[in-house]
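Quick entry, no commentary yet.
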Amino acid sequence: MKAFTYNTAHALPDFSIALDEVAEPELGPTDVVVQVKAFSFNPVDYKIRQSRSANDDSPVILGWDAAGVVEEVGSQVQGFRAGDEVYYAGNLNRAGSYAQRQAVDYRLIAHKPASLDFADASALPLTALTAHEALFERGIHYGPQSAVLVIGGAGGVGSIAIQLLKALTDATVIATATRPETIDWCKAMGADHVIGRNLEEELRRLGIGPLDVVFSTTHTQDYLPIIPNILRPFGHLAVIDDPATLDIRPFKPKALSVHWEFMFSKSMHDFHPQTQGETLAKLAALIEAGQVKTTRIQTLRASADQVRQAHAMLEEGTAHGKLAMAW
């Protein structure tokens, strides 16, 4: 089969991902082999490209967001059969979805929403699972008076977080964005308010605060000194990026909770992996009900040059929503 691969970790100027012929994926007892119809790009892709090199003579295949058709099922697989259309995010420790076929644990997958094509569906799993785990699996309670701030509302995770909050809670949702196109995007996703970087001043202008939850998807380091000021006592900060330092002491006077989210934790540690498939099944129902829509903004043609373009856009932070690639 064909896949986009590389051998040595590298930076963008030395981009060496190429379309090559590779071995077919091996089917484990709890695996399905999926014919990948489309995959999408995430920041984790370029971070792994910068740090992971090949071993055991197997090249690195990136990509952890895909939609496709089941071709084979392992002996212990339940609920799926050949011909099923599915979508999933996969396991960071296994070969990824920049390939024509991929083996993935059946507990991580769900049937693709029938109303979405493969490219639209491939844009959703990783970001939706990230947002759901950060906002709905940490014991946070939302009431009609709740207010949630999503920092980085136009990004892949922010885009779906806004939609899930609007679909599943009565909370007021505020998002940060600064460019006209990203402000418009956040509003299209359902944000009640869109603000810039001066969080305290703009929340005060809106008459909103203190907040119940801050979901920081980007530039957390810049906002850490401010976040304790804008959260209510016993409020919550959920974080997905990697601040260089995190001084927890300012969070103590208000007894604030800090939740770190890493979507691959469940699959990497075999910790209730079936809940990811279950969450994607619930997401499909929300999509079919018209409560959530795809965050895909563009579908690229399958070529190494287009893979490089996607990585460049992710590293530069110039893209909003999600980029997909169809075979």
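second:
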Amino acid sequence: MKARRTRPTGREFAALVFLAGLTAVPCVVLGVERLSFKPWWGNRFTPEQDVAFGRQGAADAEKQFPLLKDAQTEQYISALGHRLVLFAPNNSPAYVWQFKVVNSSDINAFALPGGFVYVNRGAIEAAQDEAQIAGVMAHESGHVVMRHGTTRATKAMLAELAGGLLEGIAGQSGSLTSQVFATIGGFGIGSWMLHNSRQDETQADEVGTYILYHGGYDPHAMAQFFDIIQKKYPQRTIQFFSDHPVPENRIKDVNAEIPLLGPATQGKTNTPEFDAMKKHLLGLPPAPKAQSGGSAPPKPASPPPPPSSRLQRYEGEGFTIRYPDNWQAEKTGDGIALFPAGGMISDEGGDVSQAYGASITNFRPTGQAGWGLVEATQELFDSWRGSNPNLHVLKQTGAKVLGQPALVTLLENDSPLGGQKENDQVLTLRRSDSLLALVFVAPQSSFDAYKPTFDAMEQSLEIR
């Protein structure tokens, strides 16, 4: 369906000691110190190297993704981006700041080190006002000024290069820098785009909110955009939330930060320039069918391995569940997907669907506070049918789960494997302000084999 080690080794410890002597990039915007807008102290690279890495990544990106060649849209997005980064903390004079539009209907955006920011046409079209698209761009600019790309690169290479770092202590750090630069240069576009952590996303939210506030916009707009698109465009945003794993309590945290930014203001939400640009954009020929940017998983050549009987714990926002230890967990929008290797399938257009595994989502019905379980469940299914038109109910029964009324619904749907049907068993129960949906999915030919695992997962569910 479309929807640890605790102690470092000796070499790593020595590397950390070496990195502790590095100087963090200073803040350049008054007042941001109290919000801790400082890049990671251990980043081994200079802002100039960020630009070099980003420039190479941009060249790769522009071979993979079609750019929108439209002067009015390009000029608007570039002008908006350059206005926003005037308020970015830790902005380095070395950064080049380029803002370009990818001619794709996917709702996405990404930033490369050094100031190379790309916004998909689909994100602009989905934005309801200027503040929302400004929030997306401010968020991406936050990744740049917090130097998340080269921070990830430094951490990824720390263990491997610990010996080299020790060599650097002996006075050969110039050689080490060259070695690291050459290695990073081979990472490619995917390493910069697709590995933001939830901590990175939280920090980019904070910086983006700061930029919006000081740029004169409603600082709530960024989190509002993320919330709107995951509800209104659930399938078009799968890749967005894969590339941008959702921090827990995103909107709550943004709202808590806003009073720290300064006196309350009535920030602007929209401008005539945005409306004119968007009207023009919507009148252009449609974007070409989306192509996979190299991140979507391929269709599996064979079924996934059987689910392990050993279950591991996943702790989500307000719930915990156990799942097979040979599956992986991935945040998707307002929920989590749990699946085996090969359980996520991409079609020729790059859309990603789940063929095996389970997912948990929090769905907020559009009705008033008195909504009922049956009606909310039906609204959820109706929202799924927008991208799963052949979805229909086979059976629905009432149940008690954790002492609460629940519904168990068996659905039939087209499997993304092609030429097959799948079964989706959905458990729905009401929470204080949302509907919790636990979905189990497998092709009909495999569903019975997965059923014991699904039952064990359902029995392990705990609600806090």
